[in-house]
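Help! Submission page says 'invalid entity' but I think these are all valid:
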Amino acid sequence: MQLAFDLAQKSLAKEGEELCGDTVEVLRRPDEIMVALSDGLGSGVKAGILSTMTVKLASTLLSRGLPLDDVMATINQTLPVCKERGLAYATLAVLAAEADGETRLLVNDSPQALLLRDGELLEPPFSQTIVGEKQIQQSQFQLQEGDLLFLFSDGVTHAGVGGVLELGWGMGGLRYYLEKKASSRLEPEQWAHEILDIVNILYQGKPGDDATVVVLRARSPRSMMLLSGPPEDEELDGELCNRLRGFPGQRVIAGGATGNMVARQWNERLVTQMNYEDPTVPPKATLAGAHLVTEGILTLNKVIDRLRLVLSGENIPPKEDGASCLARELLRTEEIHFIIGTALNPAYRSLQSAVAYPTRQQAITELSRLLTRLGKQTTVEWY
Amino acid sequence: MITVEICIGTACHLMGSEEIFTALEELPPKLKSKIVIRGTSCLGGCDRGPVVRINNQTYYRVTPSELKAVLKKLGGEDS
């Protein structure tokens, strides 16, 4: 069975530091995801530079198709070692998971990765290997649908050290916590958020180290059809709405007039909500047969903002506004078919020039470009 | 009961429909209890937003103060 992957990451900077010394780099291809997590020695700017240098080097080598072992060996031979402590300046964990589930993980001085499968917490089987004169932990295993794989920096396992817990909660405490929560159906973002919340509590709100968690979920691939804008030729209304109705994957509508058109064609009722969780995003609506209905041009432009956040290594805000919901759905989908109507609402012309918003065509073109960068396959049809 | 439907379409949103919702939240509880508030998709007045429909009568370019005045009158609280 083919798999697709969702990924969430979250970091906590050491108390008093603005920058986190841990860095995560994600590389997505249609049939593979690669993740590099590095923890720079110390904290703050210096640690941030060291870890960024390490993951950038790793991701550049990975993007050029170098095998994981060679990446690790190159980094071990390239990065300097601290003379005082005799340690490498940064740790590194590199993960590569393929669409067929085949997964490899190389860990150099980072805490052990954990795997949550069917409510049971497991350790990916690992062996020690020598890569570039350094002993590395190596895992090779098969990911299955529903699996959650966790990577951590040592700021997570050390949480509480010298404070509420003499030696910190350690791997044992972390495992205990994950086992307790194993049955909860949390999204990867929620997992990352909750784990770091606990870590912060154990540090009594004053983290003694940078802490990072990466959560990877394997699931079956999904497809989406997104209809936005009525077609220029009204006679095509029925055809487009029928195509949306017959689509086997996620059916999404972005646009008030589009929602009205589909409701009319499907003979269903469009019910708008009144929730302004984000005042800059108009509320969502519901329509039987559609998985998500949002406003059009403003929401699409906010989705672009949220996807740019993801590309810069951040998560989508845990909000339920139309743009956050649509951005999350797009990230959880591998194939996206945009069906875009080009009929113009004359009233929008003056508004668009007044608020300087990109047109629907510009927004969809940019959205499609960003999604391609995120490893998605997109098609766009204009009507 | 007074039914108030507020257009949440793109143009009305840009012209301030969210402020209309906020204004309704601030109504006196007694008057508020007489009102059913609903969001609605485009009511076809995109060039004259925000558009609000009160008991099937459509109002254009509505401001929060105008809306409050209309509702107070309909709710019998016009002094």
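Support: the input was valid. A stray whitespace character was the problem, and the output above is from the cleaned input. The mean pLDDT of chain B is 87.
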